[in-house]
């Protein structure tokens, strides 16, 4: 029987080859190399499905394929830096998601880029190829260093793709911001990687010698670590390391306070936004935490901080989404908010819930972005929702799929988003009852629910309902199969994905075996020891507490509350905006409105910081030129001045020479005479 | 005669020679005229000669005496060349004052 | 005799090119410069060295011929390579042909002299990296300055005379300081009758230092260490003795900047590794904290200065100061990854900074300005060159799977938990912040010059760069990526040679 | 083979030079017209080359060296031929040859060039004798034999005010110095009762209350030496003399005459006034030389750094180099292990200096021949029209500055090394600092030649002739300067052997 895992590298390399092809000979290919990319991602998708099937068949892989470098570190053994693959239920699932979304985005791009007559298509498809390749490499990474490397490459690709329209002023700036802000996070991530290597001598995710395993052993006293900084207690140090790595996560997954790059990133082509938000860059952060969850589970402090950041970001971003006028802006903030939920879940010990939401969100957010893309095509690249309206009848496919996505996003039963978000809130609740910080996160997450529903449907109504508010809206440009196709696929998924994990139903009705995702991530069909959800639960700090009516009651209450709130938000949006000619109601918000418009002035803050840094640099420059270099030049001018004094001795008058000569001789005589004591 | 010369303690010769030397030096330092300069130098050389002769006597070997003769001859040669140079100096600058030609300085 | 052949041929080639007519001096020089590269590859293919040349490892291609004897001490022609010097030899022979090609466009006067001097400098550089006798080494070390002086002074920019003299005098003063330091060291080694570096190193290691004119051995070693460190610091350069570098770089023509940043700076770090850290490891670890502090200051301060510059070349120049700081940090921590990474970083930075200077030069050839404010949207006119420049810039920012990341990461891994350096994690974390600042200024510079709508005050049309301008860039980029994906190409032999250095140190406390 | 020849054969080079001088006079009397220039030059060159060959041959054959029965003393020990004497004779002869060849072009239109050659050769003879002197009497006589022709040579251009002024100053300072020198000798004689070095050394060993007299004498002798070597405080004549004199003469004085001064110093202060005896007698001339060396090199370099005229810069630089070489005497110590090393390095430096400095002055001579002017600005861009000569000049400059791959590097660094080895770190440090300064002004010349653009397009038109002799001399000097680096081994080893024979 052939070993599928030996083909895993191909999953990564196929898109990479499409990158090379598009870059090299793209201009000579039809559609600027698009087909190459489609073929490659399709191939990766099929391989991923095969891998998924194999994993379902009970196999898993954790192999080192290539040693990058190897030299003596601290502690008994060398530190080996290597590349490898780690295929377990989690990464297999992620592979499928990423390849699927990438494939659909490629297809959609045919409509969005080619049909719109964009230039530089080879560069675009090369970017997409590299982007997919990097993300896939990140997903299969078997150690933290490899993960970091591809994490960085993902950042590079986001830079290239966000800045695709480099001839305009906006995109390059947005690209720079995206890379810089995430780089700031990655700075801490890098320290984290180095710290992990220094502490454990390895960065492997899985296996006996993996760093989560070592950390666990060291904590329960059955093992020890290679190194800890002097005077720092192990538990504290592990927390610090975890938080350092978290820095990268906060940056890439656009969590507060490093979320500011994401809305700007909307400068990139819409399919790219779909890719970034749904399956690649932003997902990478959360995936990383899930990947090394066995490490975070050991540190209650880290978990609590993750949960709080998540909850806060969820609410915080949602509020900003309330007032945006551009279609993609609203979606951008919704992304930040949704990833906040995932972080909340991870922090709350809801490992499965987080992955679940990651999955569902990947589909419905990709759907929403592609739908938005379709609308933008129709609107001739005008994104202002106040110029839209009434598109419902003009573009039904887009409308219904978009609606499905929105319902999922808003968390309305029985769409995908409902199940995942409900489970997150449930986990946060049951664990939070014994943990105030977590409870805070839960409450913020809960508050975000109606807000989400509100801005989502504000968007839907403004875009599709009511009367057309502009000429283009009255006569939108039609879209072709290559746009509708992906929308349909994703629309279906947005509806059905939720059913892979119907925990509430199981809990209430007691039907066993319908919480497929739980079983899947619990190595029910096989996996790798130490990477299973129940193992995480065992080592995790949380115990469950229940409201009235025990577990079932809690489930029902929680679900009811969140659903109710969602519907509430939806109804408000209905009242306000589902009218023939809606008007702005932001005035009602009063002063808050400006704050929200300006994103709590966080961008201004960061710009201010950047300027201060430049001032410091300028000061340093002045100092360097003036003082340090001044000293150097000073030395030379001083010696020259000395020379011009010395030469004055040579007066040109010979009798003066005689005098000086005699004086010199006499001085010499006296000096030696006195020292030699001749005159005694 | 020799006895007389020998009966004088050597310090006196030293003092005499030194005195003559200093006189010559004084002349060198104070006179600006090339010729005076030259003469003063001659004086200094002769001071040396006094030493040679005197101490040749004191030590009772002839080396010093002979060397003194050498020195006189060399001094003469030096003067000859000196006069020649002073001559062209006069031709070019019209003076024998050594403080005048100061075209090259610093 | 391979090394002799290598150096000798390069000298001859330099002479021939000097005599060649200007028309085809450039082509000829390129053709000639390929042979040393081939030779270096041959050295590499047959490399059979093991361990560190100074601490008694097997030296590859070693030849030792007594040259002359002075003061009872023998000076000999003693050359050879080990895992530390061979990569630098390869780097040198690899960069020179590319630099020569990159000179075809900008150098339009007195070509034969220019290319002749380039080859002359290459020969001396090879000598610096292969010589194992102090005097021989010092001859080459100093002889590098002469061609450099002309290359900057004759073909440089407006303030070339100032820059050339500054470079010349500054670095010579440094070498003299170093010379005195080393000499007092050798004389304190009473019974070592030669200037062969291996002998001296091993004599010191075996406690051969004696009291010398009433100065205790420890103090002599410390004096020598400080004097040599100060001397080499100028060459590296390290803050605060770096100010000759930006002037030299800004005034020097592109190909000269390439070699200056690519190879000449490495002379300083190479010498630091050979002399200070291999010969006097204990003094080094005694001074670990101040040295590490200097390194970190160089990294951050240099990056801040780069942030403040408006001239693309100045930006890259200051960022070189910053990058060299990493190397110093890697050396002082005395771990395999640290020292090895530092050496690797020398090669990596040589390639990357070479690429950056070349790319800036290509843009300069077309625009005749390097000021950030003067142009924008260059990507629109010269896509390929700009594309490679962007790639190179990311390499400079330490993008994984490019050489720069490997070097820096090795250094960080080596230094973070280094027992030889107190507060190692703190120093490392501080130094790492450089990767954020470097991204800051490179991205800003690129955004305003390469992207946005095309603007440039010229009376002529700016088109794509000619092939022979872009080709070297592409070659360099490939090399950088290859080295980033498979660092073991060099790192294996480097760490083999670095291990004895690490073991040489006795960690106090 | 020494055994096969009479002992006096050891003086062969001296005789050769003397005969050459006489022969020149003869030629001049046979054909006293200006056309004799060439024939004179040829004779002079051949004669000095013959002397060079002879001295080299004698050195190689080991005449007077320790392993062939030690030094050869002649004429009641008044003359002593040893390796050092021959070594320096070689220096004098080669410099003379260079100068003579160069002079042929320099004086191509001079009314009566004949006397010049004989004067140069006679001066050289005096130097050769000086190198072999073993008695204060011979020293003084030989010294005058060198000085008197030199005065005339400096003032040789009778119509040129500069030349005359230079001659006048040189002569007056020279006369004064030799008087002082002579008086010093007389005092030493008074104190020790002997003029032979051996006897003097003996006397120094047993001074009965006459330490003061001897001390005064020795210091005055130091003064005389300082004058010949153009060291502070007897250096004042040098800048003017070198600037005003015809460039070949400047070359001759600054190289050969200086070396002559040093050979005296080396012999006197090792054989007549040995370190140990002098120190026990309370006569610390080592300190005196140390101070002189430091002051001399500093003054010379600082002053040179701010000159406008290349020739005068070279004059000051040669003062600076005198300071370096003085280290060879100043870094001696009673118990020093490296006495021979440091003095040998000093000798080697003088040899190298003989080539590079002569070459530099001869380049100036060429510039004067072209009439391009004297200042740095006037030299701008010369390399465009005279590349070969300019490269040679660059070689001289870098070599003088002590940069590899030129001989000046080795000699200078062995000098500093020897000083460090003998514990005189401070002298080496002084030397190092000064080398940096010197680097600045030497590179100014190179900058003018290669980097600066000509003042005007026509400013280079002056370069219309290619003086063969000058070119030959300059190029030869340059080649020697370069080849002395790989070939430094025999030189330094001979020099050290010569030096070690003195202790």
Automatic annotation (TrEMBL), chain A:
GO terms for molecular function: NADH dehydrogenase (ubiquinone) activity; NADH dehydrogenase activity. It comes from Halorubrum persicum. Gene3D superfamilies: 1.20.5.2700. One of its GO terms (biological process) is ATP synthesis coupled electron transport. It holds the Pfam family Proton_antipo_M. Signal peptide: none annotated. Residues 141-430 form the NADH:quinone oxidoreductase/Mrp antiporter transmembrane domain. It is found in: Membrane. It is a multi-pass membrane protein. Coiled coil: none annotated. This is NADH-quinone oxidoreductase subunit L. Its main location: membrane. The chain crosses the membrane at residues 6-26, 33-53, 90-112, 124-141, 147-166, 187-206, 234-251, 272-290, 302-323, 330-356, 362-379, 399-419, 439-464, 485-503, 552-574, 657-679. GO terms for cellular component: membrane. Residues 78-125 form the NADH-Ubiquinone oxidoreductase (complex I) chain 5 N-terminal domain. Keywords: Membrane, Transmembrane, Transmembrane helix.
TrEMBL record, chain B:
Belongs to the complex I subunit 4L family. The keyword Transcription regulation does not apply. It comes from Halorubrum persicum. It is found in: Membrane. Coiled coil: none annotated. GO terms for cellular component: NADH dehydrogenase complex. The chain crosses the membrane at residues 12-29, 36-60, 66-90. This is NADH-quinone oxidoreductase subunit K. Its main location: membrane. One of its GO terms (biological process) is ATP synthesis coupled electron transport. Keywords: Membrane, Transmembrane, Transmembrane helix, Transport. It is a multi-pass membrane protein. Pfam families: Oxidored_q2 (PF00420). GO terms for molecular function: oxidoreductase activity, acting on NAD(P)H. It comes from the Archaea.
From TrEMBL, chain D:
Residues 133-438 form the NADH:quinone oxidoreductase/Mrp antiporter transmembrane domain. It comes from Halorubrum persicum. Coiled coil: none annotated. HAMAP family: NDH1_NuoN_1. It is found in: Membrane. One of its GO terms (biological process) is ATP synthesis coupled electron transport. Signal peptide: none annotated. GO terms for molecular function: NADH dehydrogenase (ubiquinone) activity. Its main location: membrane. The chain crosses the membrane at residues 6-27, 39-60, 84-103, 115-133, 139-158, 170-192, 204-227, 285-306, 313-333, 345-367, 388-411, 423-442, 469-488. One of its GO terms (cellular component) is membrane. The keyword Amino-acid biosynthesis does not apply. This is Oxidoreductase. It is a multi-pass membrane protein. Keywords: Membrane, Transmembrane, Transmembrane helix.
